[in-house]
Automatic annotation (TrEMBL):
Keywords: Iron, Metal-binding. This is Gamma-butyrobetaine hydroxylase-like N-terminal domain-containing protein. InterPro entries: GBBH-like_N, GBBH-like_N_sf. Residues 17-100 form the Gamma-butyrobetaine hydroxylase-like N-terminal domain. One of its GO terms (molecular function) is metal ion binding.
Length: 126
């Protein structure tokens, strides 16, 4: 369980968030560590929105068909997050600095879980 104070102290603060020209890669840069790059597909299928995550772990949705999704806007939310707008018009996820850190730390397991869920449900990335 995280407190707001603890989260603020332990979460790296981005110095730049840049959408690459292809609109399929978002780069989060930090002053004291290497930049982190995420694909738009990875961010879309792991959106922190209730639409994707549900209101409880058992309500989480497997979002298929996002292999070619693009990010069309990156909008600041206060000084703690950004809202990403995808070309499928999904725009309800608020990506906090803490959530970007979680995504980076859990990237391999989240991606493996996603691919497994697609296979189990007979769904495709395309």
């Amino acid at each position: 369980m995280r407190s707001d104070t603890l989260a603020t102290e332990t979460v790296p603060w981005p110095t730049e968030i840049r959408l690459k020209k292809d609109r399929k890669h978002l780069v989060v840069s930090y002053e004291d560590r290497e930049p982190v790059e995420f694909t738009s597909e990875f961010l879309r299928v792991n959106s922190p929105s209730a639409e994707v995550q549900g209101h409880a772990p058992h309500q989480r949705k497997t979002v298929a068909g996002k292999a070619h999704v693009e990010i069309i806007a990156v909008e600041p939310v206060g000084n703690y997050a950004v809202k990403l707008v995808f070309d499928d018009l999904h725009n309800t996820g608020i990506f906090t600095w803490a959530y970007f850190k979680e995504l980076d730390e859990q990237r391999e397991s989240l991606w493996a879980r996603y691919l497994k869920e697609l296979e189990e449900k007979g769904l495709s990335r395309s």
